[in-house]
Predict the 3D structure of the following.
Amino acid sequence: MKLSRFITKFDYILFISMIALTITGILFIYSANLNKDETQSEFIKQIIFSIISFIVFIIILLIPLRKIREYSFWIYIGCIIGLLLTLVPIFPVIMGQRRLMILGFSIQFADFAKLAVTLLLAQYYILHQNNIESLKTYLIGCIIVFLPVGIILLHPDLGSALVFIPILLGVSYIAGVRRKFLLYTMLLFVVISLIPILTTINRLYYESDNDIIYSLTNLKYIALIFSVLLITILISLALYFNIIVKISERLRVVYYWYIFFASIVFIGLAISYPANHYVLKQYQKDRLLIFFNPYIDPQNKGFHIIQSMNTVGNGGIFGKGWKKGEQTQNFFVPEQATDFIYPVIAEEKGFIGSIFIIILYVLLFYRGFLISYNARDYWSAYVVIGIICILLFHILENIGMCIGIMPITGIPLPFLSYGGSFLIACYIAVALMMNISLNRFQY
């Protein structure tokens, strides 16, 4: 690309938003660690991560889009291998999750897997555009998305696993997958979360499971429900293949709808029971519990969220000033350089500073939507939408958990939270969007 074209077509708003967020993150990571006994290691590391991220950003910006698209499958496979390597017991467990260590730095392949899934899912939908409305096409797309999710849950990292759901829904929606498939998918996830939520709510009021909850979570009763649902599914198949005498068309349609939702309940409960008992760790159930009522254990399990909300409110309109937040400098907020960086900004720069951060994110999404809208090919549009879904979910979930309207999942805030892997992944995401914007007339 000619230099003059590069200069005129470069998205300065997107670039400046990214750099402004990164610099803000570095400044408040410094403030969050100001009174620690040890040296400002996280502050120094974040500067190094930012430099590495910028170098990677330039490299991705210069790679031809065709190459990225052609190698999307191998990028995906590389991330799957990385996720599997992370499970090897020789690597350390950091904050409850196993991390792959290279040269003293921990690498979270889950952050890169989100982008790899977006690239491959977009490519897959392009190759099957003629059959985009078929159930088979959508189910294979689900396999592409949820294969790495299964590995990530073994780490375990529930927060990162949840990010893949908006990727699937966002890219599938824009690609033209039937809306009812997406609706059914959302309904399925609601059913899967049913038993964990019910048992959690029950714990708010009872020390042990009451009769209703016991019935819903006891394996004997679950098996009975499954048997009934399985029989109805078999009957529906018999109706479908005309094994049973024909019934009126209206009754048949009603029965099919009933069977479909019964099947979703069947599958959802089949996943929900083992997920509640064998997949979800106790600390994850505790996080769900304190989401409903953090004051049930204010000195222990609810301490994080209570202090986070107090810190956000302590900033007022204009804040206490950089490096002057009482809650921050006295370390009332746990993990305040990583997952809870937003309360640090809110306390020291107040409502004005918080709104400034939101504006930078809005600018980033605004430019992203424009790039997707103006893309000259479907693959580029799908990729940008997938990236927006990743970043948007991270922002809504992180800020939401900091102010008490979302459960704590432990996912970072883009460009602001301390951490190398996620920062590099964010820079790659923006580089992909800018590469698409710069080269939309090239091919």
The longest strand covers residues 100-102. DSSP finds 19 helices and four strands in the chain.
